[in-house]
C-alpha cells in the first residue's frame, strides 16, 4: 500500500492512485520550464483504507433517486468520515512528509478525485480545498477533503452523469502555499466560443480563491497571436509581454497534454507557478478535414432554428434529404461551405440564405470572404449552397403565381400535398419489418422534391422578391426601413399562425366549464384526453382538442429531428399555453385580434397607396397596391414547405415507433426510445438480424448527454478557429444587442423558458428562449414580446411575431444566460436591443 507519494514520484502519474488533479500535477512537474509548487499526495489507497467500511455500511442509501434522500445519505457519510480516528502509522508518515518543509510553511490541501480533471469531464469544484493550512492542521484537512467526496453537489453530479459512487475514490494533494501577488486562470482556447486560436486569461490581485469564489471581478484578456484585447479600463496587474510569455507557457502545456487546457496559476516575484491544469471539457468538437485543407463550416441548426442535439436516427433522415454537404459534429449538423466561397454563384447563395436566417452567421462569413489569401488558396471543388440546380422551375412558377395573384392556387397546392401524405399513410400502414424501412427510404427520395416543390417554393421565392420591392418603395415614401414588417399582421394561409388561433379556440371552449379548467390546472404532465372526458363538460373540449391534434399533432419543438416528441404523443405540452390563454386573455381574443390586425393592414395599405399617388404618381401607386396584395395573399405560404415536410415525418415516425414497440416485444430493444440512438442503416440491420449493440447505444447516450450541454458555434474552421462576431450598433449602455425583426417597444416581465411545456405565462410577459419554431406558436397568442438567441428576419419567430404584432428581437447571444427569469426588461424591436430594467 502506498499512502503518500511525492509529486515527482513516477507512480504519482497513476490517476487511480492520485486522482485527476494529482496525476496532472505530476505531469506538469515533469515538464521543462514549468514551475509547480512542491508537494505530495495522500493516495486513494489511504482513502480506501480509512473509509471503505464507512461508505460500504451506508452505500445503499446512495442509490436513492430523490435529491433530498441523496443529500441526507451524503451528509451521513461525510460526518462518519470526519469522525474516523487516523491510524498512528499514517500520522507518523504524514508528519515525516511535512517535516521536510520549513516549519513556518503553510499548505494548500486539495481534493483529487479519480473522477476529476478528466479529458471528457472536469467535475471542477465538486470537492473541497483548503488554503493556508498549518502543518498541525493538515491531518484534519485531509479527512475533510475525503469527506467532501460526498458533498451534495458531488453526489448529485455523479448521480446525474451515471458514475457509480462505489467506482469513485479520492486522493488529497498537499502543496506549499505560494504567496501569490497575482492569480488566475488561463484557458488555452476560448471556452465561450470554442475558438482554439484564442487564449483567455483572467487574473485577480492576490489569491486565486478570490476569483473562483466571485469575491473579486477579474481582469480579462483575449489573446490571438500578438493581438491582445482587454476588457478593463483600470491598470492591469500583468504587462502585455507577461501575457504573451504566459500564453506561450499555456500552449506548451496544451501540446504536452494533447488538448486545450484550463490552467490555474499564480505569479510571484516575476515568475509563473502552475497549480492545476485540466482539459476544457466544454469546447465544441472540431469538424474533420479529410484532405488537410482548412475548411469552413456553418451551423445548420442556426439556419433551421434548432440548435439542440439531434439523435442518430434524426441525423440519418436529415442527411437523406439534405441539399448541402453536411457533416455531423457534436450531435449537430454543419454545412461545409469551403468551395462555395470560391465561386460568384456560391457566394451569392450563401449571402442570400444567411442574411435572411442569422445575421451573426452572415457577418462571420463576410469576414471570411474578406480574407483574399485564404479564398485564393481554396482549390476548386463541389459546393454545398451552389449544388442545387432546381431553381429554374421554381422561378418560373413564382413568376406565374405573381402574375395570377390568385389564392386559389394556394388551395390547389395544399390539396395536392395532402393527397400525397394520405397516399403515403395508406402505403406504410400495412407494412412491417424491413419492408416498412425500405418503403420509407424509397419515399425519402421524393421528399426533397416535395419540400422544394415548384409551387410551394415558388410562392416563397416570389414573396421574398416582392418584400424587397415593398421595402424599397416604403423607404422612398416614408424613410422607414423594412416597412413590410408592419404590413405582416393577420395574413391568411399561414398554417403556423392558424395553429395558435386554433388552440385559443379550444381554450375558449374549455373556459366555459370550470371543472375542465380545474382539471387542466391540476393535471400537469399527467394530462390525458381520456381523463379529460371524465370531467363535467370535458367531452366537448376533448373532442375539440383531438380535432386540433388531427391538424397540428405532428408539430414539436425541434421538429426537424424525428426523435422529438410530437404534440399528439404528449398533448400535455400544450396545457400551459391553454391555461395562459384562459387566465390572461378575454374570450375570442384570437379571432378579434386577427380581425383587428386585418383592418389595420387595410388602413395602412390605403395610406401608403395614397402617399405613393401623391409622391410618385398613379402608375407607381397602382404597382405598390399590387405588390401589397400579393404580399398579403402569399406571405403565410412560406410556412407550408416545412409544414408538409413535418407532416411526412410524422407518418414515418408512426411507422418507426410500431417497429420500435415490436423490437421491444421481441426483446431486441430494451425500450422504444432506444431506436433513436441507431442510424437508419443500423435499424435496418437490427430488424434483419434481431440484434442490437447496446454497448454502442450506451456510449451514444453518454456522448449525446455531453453534447447537449455544449453551445454550437455559428461558424467554425476545421483547425478550431471561430471568427469573431458582434453587432455593430449604437445602443444604450448595458443593453443586449440583437436583430429587431418585429417593430415596437414593450416592457414586461421576462419569462426565461426552454420548453413550451413550461410556458405558463401571465399578461404582459415577454418570452425569452433559445429559439422558436412552429411548435411555440400557441404561446405567441398571449405574450407581449419575444427575445431569442437565434434567428433572422425570415425565421419562424420573426414572421409570426410580425403577424401577431409583437415586438421581437432575435439573435441575442446568451439571452437565456444573461436575462434572469422574472426580471423586468424592455424589448426594442425598432432598434434591435434588449434592456434589463
TrEMBL record:
<dbReference type="InterPro" id="IPR051549">
    <property type="entry name" value="PEP_Utilizing_Enz"/>
</dbReference>
<dbReference type="InterPro" id="IPR036637">
    <property type="entry name" value="Phosphohistidine_dom_sf"/>
</dbReference>
<keyword id="KW-0670">Pyruvate</keyword>
<dbReference type="Pfam" id="PF00391">
    <property type="entry name" value="PEP-utilizers"/>
</dbReference>
<keyword id="KW-0808">Transferase</keyword>
<feature type="domain" description="Pyruvate phosphate dikinase AMP/ATP-binding">
    <location>
        <begin position="16"/>
        <end position="223"/>
    </location>
</feature>
<dbReference type="GO" id="GO:0005524">
    <property type="term" value="F:ATP binding"/>
</dbReference>
<dbReference type="InterPro" id="IPR013815">
    <property type="entry name" value="ATP_grasp_subdomain_1"/>
</dbReference>
<feature type="domain" description="PEP-utilising enzyme mobile">
    <location>
        <begin position="762"/>
        <end position="832"/>
    </location>
</feature>
<keyword id="KW-0547">Nucleotide-binding</keyword>
<dbReference type="GO" id="GO:0008986">
    <property type="term" value="F:pyruvate, water dikinase activity"/>
</dbReference>
<dbReference type="InterPro" id="IPR002192">
    <property type="entry name" value="PPDK_AMP/ATP-bd"/>
</dbReference>
<keyword id="KW-0067">ATP-binding</keyword>
<dbReference type="Pfam" id="PF01326">
    <property type="entry name" value="PPDK_N"/>
</dbReference>
<protein>
    <submittedName>
        <fullName>Phosphoenolpyruvate synthase</fullName>
        <ecNumber>2.7.9.2</ecNumber>
    </submittedName>
</protein>
<dbReference type="InterPro" id="IPR008279">
    <property type="entry name" value="PEP-util_enz_mobile_dom"/>
</dbReference>
<feature type="domain" description="Pyruvate phosphate dikinase AMP/ATP-binding">
    <location>
        <begin position="227"/>
        <end position="283"/>
    </location>
</feature>
Amino acid at each position: 500500500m502506498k499512502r503518500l507519494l511525492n509529486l515527482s514520484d513516477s507512480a504519482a502519474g497513476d490517476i487511480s492512485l492520485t486522482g485527476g488533479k494529482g496525476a496532472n500535477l505530476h505531469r506538469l512537474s515533469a515538464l521543462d520550464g514549468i514551475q509547480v509548487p512542491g508537494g505530495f499526495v495522500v493516495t486513494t489507497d489511504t482513502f480506501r483504507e480509512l473509509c471503505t467500511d464507512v461508505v460500504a455500511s451506508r452505500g445503499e442509501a446512495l442509490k436513492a433517486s430523490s435529491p433530498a434522500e441523496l443529500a441526507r445519505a451524503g451528509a451521513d457519510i461525510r460526518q462518519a468520515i470526519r469522525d474516523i480516528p487516523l491510524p498512528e502509522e499514517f500520522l507518523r508518515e504524514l508528519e515525516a512528509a511535512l517535516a521536510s518543509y520549513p516549519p513556518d510553511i503553510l499548505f494548500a490541501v486539495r481534493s483529487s478525485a479519480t473522477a476529476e480533471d478528466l479529458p471528457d469531464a472536469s467535475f471542477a469544484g465538486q470537492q473541497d480545498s483548503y488554503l493556508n493550512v498549518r502543518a498541525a492542521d493538515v491531518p484534519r484537512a485531509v479527512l475533510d477533503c475525503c469527506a467532501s467526496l460526498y458533498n451534495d453537489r458531488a453526489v448529485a453530479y455523479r448521480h446525474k452523469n451515471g458514475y457509480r459512487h462505489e467506482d469513485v475514490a479520492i486522493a488529497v494533494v498537499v502543496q506549499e502555499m505560494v504567496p501569490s501577488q497575482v492569480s488566475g486562470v488561463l484557458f488555452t482556447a476560448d471556452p465561450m466560443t470554442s475558438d482554439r486560436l484564442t487564449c483567455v486569461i483572467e487574473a485577480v490581485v492576490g489569491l486565486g480563491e478570490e476569483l473562483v469564489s466571485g469575491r473579486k471581478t477579474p481582469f480579462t484578456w483575449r489573446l490571438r497571436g500578438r493581438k491582445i484585447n482587454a476588457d478593463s479600463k483600470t491598470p492591469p496587474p500583468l504587462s502585455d509581454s507577461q501575457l504573451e510569455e504566459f500564453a506561450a507557457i499555456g500552449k506548451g502545456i496544451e501540446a504536452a497534454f494533447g488538448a486545450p487546457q484550463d490552467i490555474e496559476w499564480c505569479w510571484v516575484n516575476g515568475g509563473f507557478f502552475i497549480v492545476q491544469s485540466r482539459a476544457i471539457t466544454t469546447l465544441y468538437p472540431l469538424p474533420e478535414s479529410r484532405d488537410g485543407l482548412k475548411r469552413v463550416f456553418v451551423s445548420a441548426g442556426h439556419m433551421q432554428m434548432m440548435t439542440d442535439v439531434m439523435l442518430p436516427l434524426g441525423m440519418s433522415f436529415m442527411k437523406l434529404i439534405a441539399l448541402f454537404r453536411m457533416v455531423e459534429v457534436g450531435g449537430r449538423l454543419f454545412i461545409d461551405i469551403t468551395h462555395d466561397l470560391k465561386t460568384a454563384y456560391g457566394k451569392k447563395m450563401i449571402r442570400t440564405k444567411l442574411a435572411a436566417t442569422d445575421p451573426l452567421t452572415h457577418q462571420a462569413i463576410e469576414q471570411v470572404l474578406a480574407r483574399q489569401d485564404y479564398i485564393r488558396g481554396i482549390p476548386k471543388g463541389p459546393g454545398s449552397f451552389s449544388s442545387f440546380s432546381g431553381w429554374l422551375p421554381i422561378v418560373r412558377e413564382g413568376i406565374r403565381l405573381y402574375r395570377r395573384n390568385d389564392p386559389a392556387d394556394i388551395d390547389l397546392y395544399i390539396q395536392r400535398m395532402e393527397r400525397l401524405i394520405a397516399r403515403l399513410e395508406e402505403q406504410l400502414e400495412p407494412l412491417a419489418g424491413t419492408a416498412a424501412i425500405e418503403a420509407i427510404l424509397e419515399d425519402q427520395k421524393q421528399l426533397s422534391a416535395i419540400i422544394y416543390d415548384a409551387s410551394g417554393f415558388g410562392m416563397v421565392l416570389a414573396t421574398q422578391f416582392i418584400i424587397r420591392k415593398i421595402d424599397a418603395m416604403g423607404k422612398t415614401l416614408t424613410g422607414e426601413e423594412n416597412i413590410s414588417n408592419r404590413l405582416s399582421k393577420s395574413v391568411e394561409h399561414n398554417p403556423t399562425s392558424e395553429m395558435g388561433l386554433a388552440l385559443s379556440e379550444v381554450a375558449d371552449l374549455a373556459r366555459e366549464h370550470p371543472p375542465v379548467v380545474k382539471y387542466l390546472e391540476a393535471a400537469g404532465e399527467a394530462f390525458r384526453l381520456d381523463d379529460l372526458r371524465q370531467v363535467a363538460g370535458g367531452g366537448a373540449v376533448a373532442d375539440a382538442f383531438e380535432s386540433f391534434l388531427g391538424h397540428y399533432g405532428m408539430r414539436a419543438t425541434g421538429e426537424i429531428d424525428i426523435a422529438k416528441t410530437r404534440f399528439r404523443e404528449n398533448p400535455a405540452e400544450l396545457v400551459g399555453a391553454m391555461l395562459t390563454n384562459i387566465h390572461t386573455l378575454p374570450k375570442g381574443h384570437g379571432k378579434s385580434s386577427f380581425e383587428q390586425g386585418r383592418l389595420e393592414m387595410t388602413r395602412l395599405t390605403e395610406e401608403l397607396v395614397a402617399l405613393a399617388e401623391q409622391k410618385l404618381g398613379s402608375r407607381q401607386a397602382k404597382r405598390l397596391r399590387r405588390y401589397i396584395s400579393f404580399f398579403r395573399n402569399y406571405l403565410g405560404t412560406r410556412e407550408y414547405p416545412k409544414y408538409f415536410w413535418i407532416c411526412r415525418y410524422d407518418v414515418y415516425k408512426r411507422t418507426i415507433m410500431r417497429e420500435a414497440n415490436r423490437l421491444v416485444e421481441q426483446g431486441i430493444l430494451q425500450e422504444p426510445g432506444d431506436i433513436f440512438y441507431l442510424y437508419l442503416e443500423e435499424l435496418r440491420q437490427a430488424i434483419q438480424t434481431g440484434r442490437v449493440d447496446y454497448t454502442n447505444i450506451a456510449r451514444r447516450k453518454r456522448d449525446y448527454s455531453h453534447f447537449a450541454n455544449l453551445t454550437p458555434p455559428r461558424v467554425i474552421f476545421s483547425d478550431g478557429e471561430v471568427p469573431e462576431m458582434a453587432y455593430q450598433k449604437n445602443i444604450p449602455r448595458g443593453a443586449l444587442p440583437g436583430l429587431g425583426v418585429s417593430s415596437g417597444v414593450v416592457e414586461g416581465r421576462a419569462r426565461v423558458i426552454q420548453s413550451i411545456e413550461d410556458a405558463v405565462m401571465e399578461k404582459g410577459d415577454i418570452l425569452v428562449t433559445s429559439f422558436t419554431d412552429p411548435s411555440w406558436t400557441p404561446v405567441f397568442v398571449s405574450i407581449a414580446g419575444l427575445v431569442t438567441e437565434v434567428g433572422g428576419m425570415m425565421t419562424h419567430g420573426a414572421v409570426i411575431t410580425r403577424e401577431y404584432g409583437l415586438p421581437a428581437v432575435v439573435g441575442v447571444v446568451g439571452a437565456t444566460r444573461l436575462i434572469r427569469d422574472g426580471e423586468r426588461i424592455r424589448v426594442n424591436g425598432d432598434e434591435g436591443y434588449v434592456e434589463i430594467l
